[in-house]
Amino acid sequence: METREGKINLLRLSNIRKLFKKAGGEDHLVLNGISLTIDEGEIVALLGRSGSGKSTMLRIISGLVRPDSGEVFYGGKPVNGPVKGLAMVFQTFALFPWLTVLENVELGLEALKVPRAERRRRALAAIDLIGLDGFESAYPKELSGGMRQRVGFARALVVEPTLLLMDEAFSALDVLTAETLRTDLIELWLEHRIPTKGILVVSHNIEEAVLLADRIIVLGTNPGVFIAEIHIPLEHPRDREAPAFRKLVDEVYEIMTKRPRGATGRSDVVPMSYRLPTAHVNQLAGLMEALAAEPYNGRADLPELAEQMGFSADQLFPLLEALEILFFAHTEGGDVELTPSGKSYVDADILRRKVIFAEHTIRHIALAAHIRRIIDERPGNRAPEERFLRELEDFFSEDEAERVLQVAIEWGRYAEHFAYEEGAGMLSLENPESSANTL
Amino acid sequence: MKLSDLNKSIHLPNLWDIIAFLLVMGLITLLAWGSRQMAVPYTQGQEIPLSLDPSCLPLYALRTVLRMVAALIFSLIFTFTYATLAAKSRRAEELLVPILDILQSVPILGFLSITVTGFIAMFPGSLFGVECASIFAIFTSQAWNMAFSFYQSLRTVPKELQEASVLFGLSSWQRFWKLETPFATPGLIWNMMMSVSGGWFFVVASEAITVGKTAVTLPGIGSYVALAIRDKNLHAIGWALLTMLLVILLYDQLLFRPLVAWAEKFKFEMTESQDSAESWLLNMFLRARFLRNFVGSIGQIRAMVMESLPALPRRQTTFKDLSPLQVRVRQIVWYGLLIGGLAYCCWTLVTFVNSGVNPSEIGKVFLLGLITLVRVLILLLLASLIWVPLGVIIGLNPRWATKVQPLAQFLAAFPANLLFPIAVFLMVRYRLSPEIWTAPLMILGTQWYILFNVIAGAAAIPTDLREAALNMGVTGWRLWKRLLLPGILPSLLTGLVTASGGTWNASIVAEVVSWGDTTLTATGLGSYIAQWTEKGDYPHIVLGIAVMSLYVVCINRFFWRKVYTISQTRYRLD
Questions:
Q1: What's the pTM?
Q2: Which in B240, B283, B522, B547 has the greatest CB count within 10 A?
Q3: Is A139 left (phi over 0), alpha (psi -120 to 50) or beta?
Q4: What's the complex ipTM?
Q5: In the A/B pair of chains, how many CB contacts fall below 8 A?
């Protein structure tokens, strides 16, 4: 094992690159040049928005997926397949519904060929430790979400992993349950009641990362790249309301909303190759209304806004990005501010809002303008959606192209730039007669 | 197993134990007796004595049931191997899945006529060969469907569960039994149930069939009915119907209800469903504590033996590297073999058919296919016109739906060919034209698929939507057009697809029917196949079957699948 500043390396990644192969064409880069170490005795959080490849990274670390270049060392040895001594807790729990709690927990030990009696003893101990006593013979479907994830933890801890991986382990739970489970885990960790030597938390929840981790690694999106590393020097248990805690949260927000220079350029138009964020028109309108109203009056602090509106960071960021590229709002230094056109949108009535939205999409979103122009030019004023998908696939993977086009279509439909028939996959100029009579 | 059971090690047998024990022992004895009868000496051409005495019927029924059980076991073995191979190997998948798709479309009675002489030659001097031919025919009516279901389940095992089992170090053998098979179980059991329902039709048809000089007559309900037809004995037919009814009822209660109730546990859902399936038999066995502990301890002994065995050296899964050249070479070899094999098959087929069939006849056979196609489509339309309105009305009334639904499923299982003699009797009596009046026989057994799917679809229309329609004053025809018909469309299509396949199959037995020495024949591809089968002329049989398969494949591909996809994307209510 290597040492660095007297610490023992549990895991070391160097210069990881991962491509996803596309059927007929260019590959799609998911992770680019990521390096990372986890030392003994630390909790590291990987923080990033969807599309930052953090789940892929977790799978590379656990040996489920192979990187295209770069190396992974675990306990000093290169990783070349699924690794022993690693256990993962899944977002969806990944419990076997046909096995009881006890059988689920025993499963990993069975695979390790632990003798029957010892298996039972260790499984019962793990169940006891995680607070599942009395549920041994229950099936997962009889349990609440929080209890299910406890089974997930018991199953991971029973194999006494050196490194515990958590893939959004708390994000499928309600706020209160997630909080209790986090607290319990931290207690077990601090009191050394589990032999685990390191924890890697993958999350999109900023507060969760600041609450749990000794160190946060922020990943940027598309492809996933290293953006920042933040040390959290706070003592456990951490107080969410403490000024030092709030300051760190603010700092992370600022890092995560900072747009890399040159992404949109200084120009007013986002190009065709821009990944439009998934943001529904109603959500955008709702967010702008909230921003315009008391207590924000057009300007808000991001963590405060997220909490107020019950949004996780991952839900809020795409909306902010959409408002930004549409020139309805501007995000800077962890704050968001409505632009004058954003304000006039909020003040307008339903029809007038559509007109404003239409102007902004045509002016600022190249894809929307492009679709409209093609439809105008084509005979019959109709164009198949396939056509635009092909164009977008020059820039994105198939799924991503479809997602981006869906966003553009939703915006364009609302703005009444064009109509869309889903079954036929046809875009056309607004013409209600033709769409009402199909089948 | 529950912990509490482990702690209490001694249990005295209770009443349920005694009942369950007797049931199990009785079943084993019957199976043993029946299986011995299957391998009695037999020389080809020998007449197997059959009696129309109703008291013989229970034993005949047992023989029929045993054939069904044997076919089911073989179907399961086939499913586990074929579907697993297709799901695990990309290369195998490219070949195996299309083959399965085609096999599904080949009329099942066609298999019988082609394989029967081969099987008899395999076991000279024993009845076993004839039994095999019959079992194989039933097998072909079940296996493809089950294999498809299993393959699809294997392909849709949730990704996280796969990852979890890899991370926890389960071997692929462990993964197959701990993850993949349990996940596929509910779907497999449902398909098994449907397949067995369809299978009764073929077991009846396969017990009495003549291919040229080879006459297959096996003691069973099917051959009993065949004899009754020859003797024009309506009473005997009545008894046979009654027996079949009882057999299906028992099969349902003793095998499938318990299986379905047991499979509830493997459903991949995280909420407990409201109306989970129940079975009195399963409940009884669960209450029979002694028996359950006995079975449990067998499991424990097995586990102990397995653990004491030296572990096989396990290959550590690692990422594999193949050079681009290797990949290329493998591809070329694989596709070369594939195309070569395909060309050889085509050539064999063409030369074989050519050896006994005048090429000019091929066009005629296609025309006959068209006639049968028209019959099938008209029948489906008529059946829909009757069953859709009725099914919707029943489905919207939950109280009726729960009563009619099992009845419809039961009727779908009932082999309609047992009813043919009655219809033919009437046709002969009133001098009805076979061209028109044999047609309803084709759909007699398969129409129920339409009914019970429509009932299920109508029952699933959300109450919200019905209330909203009511609230807006949408009633009468408009309500049907805007809500009820679109709402049931996906289920209706599921029913129609199943019914369509079954109707094609039935055409082989329904276009030629007889009563005593009167034989009524309708023009069509089904009667073409049936007639040449009786003469034992293989090139003609193969041609007929090939053309029918072609029709079925094309209709499935170019019609049903398209319509089904549209209905799934546009009319799904969830």
A1: 0.78
A2: B240
A3: beta
A4: 0.75
A5: 90
